[in-house]
Design brief:
Layout: H1 12-21, H2 41-69, H3 73-88, H4 98-115, H5 124-131, H6 137-149, E1 185-186, H7 188-194, H8 199-202, H9 208-222, H10 234-244, H11 248-271, H12 281-286, E2 292-293, H13 306-311, H14 327-343, H15 348-357, H16 359-369, H17 374-377, H18 383-400, E3 418-423, H19 429-435, H20 440-446, E4 460-465, H21 469-477, E5 488-491, H22 498-505, H23 509-515, E6 525-528, E7 553-558, H24 565-572, H25 576-583, E8 596-601
Parallel strand pairs: 1-2
Antiparallel strand pairs: 3-4, 5-6, 7-8
Helix pairs in contact: 2-3, 3-4, 4-5, 7-18, 9-10, 10-18, 11-14, 14-15, 15-16, 15-18, 19-20, 24-25
Length: about 600
């Protein structure tokens, strides 16, 4: 849903959250009468806090720019996220303070423009002036060139991932778009915008099969069997012709993948008062892929741009992008469609058109047409929208009677099954994966709204494989908060003792018992706290050198930069193990230049 007239990155939802969460009052420059505009100590203190927030955020943002110039996109993304988090985690009311609000909103907009390159370039100079960050013009221009050189999302073909990252390494893919670990695929809407029907696809009159199918459309509309009314038009049948020909693979894939989400979508649309069949809009929007991303940065099953997503309660923070979720995004889509249908007096064709190109474009088309009718306003709508509505109507017709259109052999995929549980703030997905007998990759598949391998810094509902909720909840109940991001999970065998587990994990029995709520014996999955790797060894310097009896003399050499005990042993022609033992070091010990090392000679 590419609503161009709505501000592309509105953070109303986040700002409301901040306003509700933090109670610090508005900072004002006004003063009491009779004080000659002198600022009170409270105002001075408040201003100092504002400066602290903006300065810290600016430092992190500049570090992000430096990383970006070196093509370290993952590191840049981390710095930009932390720059935003400074505002989110401050105790100030960001919404009420004009300076903080302006800086914060422009920061979000700028990071978004850097992350998802488009025709609208990030205005780093303006951000610097608004926030008082003193970013030099040369750096701003360099970043603009880097962003300009990045490929837009629409350039990715064959469902290639648009956002990549290397965990624990350096990003070397110069074609990367975005910073985080979320992975995206090209939205089918990008191809739809360029689609031109061939003369054969447009032919109905001289095609007996198409004529018969066109009559069926008229019948389905007249008896209202689809749950809503729309105007019959030849272009609907033309898109049916397209899907029966060169678009067959696209329709087949969509009908198959619809099984994963359609039951949930139908229920949600019904609950929101939207005709259930309108939910097939999701097939045209994303081909039922939560990872779909369009050229205009519309994302998820229902292709919300950030601004419209925020209007309908979908947050986009450093930790989550709820446009990519399942239930919440589906409900937001139904509510937006209901809003649009009410706006256009129950006309679902106009509602769908506005979902695609925004209310502004549709309103202007209606004014120029002189009547609120999609097909009359058709010439005045964007090209993509002209294709969009008949495409959805054709999809609804085929989906409701696949056998008639040659898709009877397609069996929808099984419904995506999962349990939902509330996890503590900042829960590591690796621990969650171990607790639910799955992988981090599958958890990311079930929770596509998560932007990293950690849940948000707040209690959050995540999806785990079906049937695993009770196991995970039981494990987390005995997991100390201090071990949440460092512990691991192991399975126990029948009759196994804490000592057995201690022997194979290297963790003391006492620590294992403490990490598992004082359980007398291990059972099922148990928490294994992370060892700090430090052993309690008492070191003492002997009063006289403990020189082996076979050592006749000792000579001393000085280490060079980059030397280890093993390197010196090789250079001096002695045993590395003996040299390390003689000097009280390890063979791999790194040595500072100039350190004296004793070389024993026999």
């Amino acid at each position: 849903m590419k609503t161009h007239l709505i501000k592309v990155f509105s953070l109303t939802a986040i700002l409301i959250f901040i306003s509700a969460s933090f109670a610090f009052g508005q900072i004002t420059s006004s003063s009491s009468s009779g004080r000659n505009n002198a600022r009170t100590p409270e105002v001075e203190q408040s201003q100092a806090q504002v400066n602290l927030v903006t300065d810290k955020s600016g430092t992190l943002f500049k570090e992000g720019l430096s990383a970006l110039k070196e093509n370290l996109r993952s590191q840049a993304g981390e710095k930009f996220d932390k720059s935003v988090e400074v505002f989110l985690y401050s105790t100030l009311n960001v919404q009420r303070n004009q300076r903080l609000s302006d800086c914060y909103n422009q920061l979000i907009e700028t990071v978004y423009r850097i992350e998802f390159p488009s025709s609208q370039q990030p205005n780093i100079r303006s951000l610097s002036a608004t926030c008082g960050w003193n970013i030099d013009n040369k750096t701003a221009d360099e970043i603009a060139k880097i962003v300009q050189a990045a490929p837009p999302a629409a350039d990715a073909a064959n469902n290639k991932a648009l956002i990549t990252s290397v965990v624990g390494g350096t990003q070397t893919d110069s074609g990367q778009v975005g910073f985080n670990e979320q992975r995206f695929e090209a939205s089918p809407l990008d191809e739809l915008a360029k689609l031109e029907l061939t003369p054969e696809e447009q032919q109905i009159e001289n095609n007996p099969v198409a004529q018969q199918q066109y009559q069926y459309i008229q019948y389905a509309v007249s008896n209202k069997s689809l749950g809503f009314s729309f105007q019959v038009h030849p272009m609907i049948q033309q898109f049916v012709n397209y899907y029966q020909g060169r678009g067959r693979a696209t329709m087949s894939t969509g009908l198959y993948r619809s099984g994963m989400f359609m039951q949930m979508a139908r229920r949600t649309f019904r609950e929101e008062g939207v005709p259930e069949n309108v939910a097939w809009l999701g097939q045209v929007e994303s081909a039922w892929k939560p990872s779909a991303l369009s050229w205009a940065a519309a994302s998820g099953l229902w292709q919300f741009i950030p601004g419209t997503g925020a209007r309908f309660g979908l947050r986009r923070t450093a930790h989550v992008d709820e446009r990519n979720g399942f239930e919440g995004a589906t409900r937001a889509s139904a509510r937006y469609l209901k809003f649009l249908a009410n706006r256009y007096n129950g006309n679902w064709e106009l509602a769908m058109a506005a979902y695609n190109s925004g209310e502004g474009n549709v309103d202007r088309a209606i004014r120029r047409a002189g009547v609120a009718n999609f097909w009359v306003a058709y010439p005045y709508l964007p090209r993509e929208t002209r294709n969009y509505v008949p495409n959805i109507l054709a999809t609804i017709l085929i989906a409701n009677n696949p056998s008639q259109y040659g898709f009877g052999h397609i069996r929808p995929a099984p419904r995506l099954m999962y349990d939902q549980i509330r996890v503590p703030p900042s829960t590591n997905l690796s621990l969650l994966a171990q607790a639910s007998d799955t992988t981090v990759e599958y958890l990311r598949y079930l929770n596509p709204e998560l932007r990293t391998n950690t849940s948000p810094p707040e209690p959050y509902i995540v999806r785990v494989p079906a049937g695993k909720a009770n196991e995970v909840v039981a494990l987390f109940r005995k997991l100390p908060a201090s071990s949440r991001n460092t512990a691991s999970v192991t399975k126990t065998a029948a009759g196994e003792s804490w000592q057995n587990i201690s022997n194979r994990t290297g963790i003391s029995v006492e620590d294992l018992i403490a990490a598992n709520g004082g359980a007398i014996a291990p059972r099922g999955k148990v928490v294994v706290p992370q060892s700090n790797g430090v052993k309690n060894i008492v070191y003492s310097r002997p009063t006289t050198p403990n020189v082996p009896a076979n050592i006749s003399r000792v000579r001393v050499v000085k280490a060079k930069a980059g030397d280890t005990v093993a390197k010196i042993a090789l250079r001096e022609g002695v045993s590395a193990a003996e040299l390390a033992k003689f000097n009280g070091l390890l063979t791999t010990s790194a040595l500072l230049a100039g350190r004296e090392i004793k070389i024993p000679s026999k």
